[in-house]
Amino acid sequence: MSDPSQLKFLIVDDFSTMRRIVRGLLKEMGCQHLSEAEDGQVALNMLRTSRFDFVVSDINMPVMDGFALLAAIKADETLRHLPVLMVTAEARKDDIVRAAQSGAAGYIVKPFSKAVLEDKVQRILSKMGVTA
Amino acid sequence: MNRHRARRMQEPGPAAPRPLTPVPQLYRQLGQLTRQLQEAMGLLGALPGLHRSALDLPDARSRLAAIERRSFAAADKVLNAVEQAKQERQRIAVAARDLARATPDDAAGMRLRAVLAEIEAAAGRVDAQLTDIMVAQDFHDLTGQMLAQVGALAIELEGKLTQLMQQARLPMPESAPRVEDTAASQREVDELLAKLGL
Q: What is the pTM (predicted TM-score) of this model?
């Protein structure tokens, strides 16, 4: 796949404001297929029933947090290829290490700018062989 | 020790003699009792204050929830406005570009094209500023998490104070948040004024 506009993104965050912001920024980057989930469990159900190419997930969420979602994705044979970009309000070093060791494709700390999100997404897309 | 007291200690009384507590130990025990009494008195003095705090906590939590609701509504309103403004900006930019293409190559047309190019560039700058406004609404997420943490702390504190109230047999604080004593909108103000005959 060479066109990011064809990729299907799943934005996971319990705050609808944050989901709208990430959605808006990805849209400005040319991404057109954008879905949302309010926690890890809802996201996992969506991932298991529909095809997605990229996950942008918050860490602190009720029901199932971002780390549990990441672990579930990486434990699932059919989902483990999915890149997961973690987004969090806290930049605790042990969390960053945990995310990296658990297989996260990237890590962003809130508040972040459009440039930071764009840079992280582009890097991950490049590794996937997707060019803008 | 004075002489009379020393004599009383030496002379056997009519009853059987009892072993006497050494004086330093007696002082220590008295000191201990005094401290315990002071602590108890301090606790009794503080209880009315703690009781007031316990009564105020449901209201404080209710106000925290109101802050969260209002900040969400504000962020939502801004995001709606930004999305609409971005669409308008897009229409302006496209119209300027289309008009520039349709403009003749004479001197007047060239001047018009320059103006249209500036309009399109300005529309691009406005878009970048709108994006900044959109991203800045993440304050709601960050403050919302902090409010949730403070709310959880208030619940925990309320529980502990309630426990203390039970132990002290003081009236229990209300379990449900109080009804807001402020009007939420101008409509509510007007309705209240109408009821009052104004």
A: 0.69
